Amino acid sequence: MLRLFIAIKLNDSVIEQLQNICFGVKNARWLPSEQLHLTIRFIGDCDETMYHDIISVLEHISLSSFNLSIKGVGYFPPRGNPRILWAGLQPSPELQELHLAINKKLHTLGLTEERRKFYPHITLARLREKTSSRAIVPFITRNSLFKIAPFHTTAFHLYSSILRREGALHQIEKTFDLM
Fold it and tell me: How far apart are CA 130 and CA 167, in angstroms?
């Protein structure tokens, strides 16, 4: 069984700029650079047959490359104790189109769409259960105007993820180029 998700890999410059803001929150477990990515679709556990079927349908996505811009920070969930700190993305019709195309292809395999609305973000940290919203106010305030210049996206990737005590290990299984 493989635990799979589809994401856009960030370039080194973007990762470095993101890591420069990752500090100052008690009880935060900041993600290491190799785990920073933009998840487009979480798939979950799949057997080998489904793994190959997923690759087969994703190879038929034919979309143009596009630019993305990171802007602002926030947290999930919006009510109650925060669990995730994230960097947001400026709205991108091209990213929405890619998300829709991926979902349509996966639907042909019987994989139902995620129930949560697609909210493009890059997870920066996971917070302990008892972290109050007051604890993250300095981080949110300090980075409210955070912005990274547009960067070009030329591919998306099928990743596998192995959950470990020290954090997930992500590996690119297959790359799908955009035109």
Answer: 20
- The dihedral built from the CA positions of residue 30, 146, 71 and 75, taken in this order, carries a sign that is positive
Per-domain boundaries in the chain: 2-177
How is 6-44 classified by DSSP, letter by letter?
Answer: EEEEPPHHHHHHHHTT----TTEEEPPGGG-EEEEEEEE
Question: How many angstroms separate the CA atoms of 135 and 14, rounded?
Answer: 26
Q: Is the peptide bond before 32 cis (omega within 30 degrees of 0)?
A: no
Q: What is the CATH number of domain 2-177?
A: 3.90.1140.10
Structure tokens at 11: 């370039």
pTM: 0.95
pLDDT tens-digit profile, the chain (179 residues):
999 999 999 999 999 999 999 999 999 999 999 999 999 999 999 999 999 999 999 999 999 999 999 999 999 998 889 999 999 999 999 999 999 999 999 999 999 888 889 999 999 999 988 899 999 999 999 999 999 999 999 999 999 999 888 778 999 999 999 99
Q: Tell me how long the chain is.
A: 179
Which two structure tokens, joined as six digits, stand for 56? 């087969």
Orientation of helix 48-58 relative to helix 93-107, angle to 10°: 130
Note whether 136 and 24 are within 8 A (CB).
no
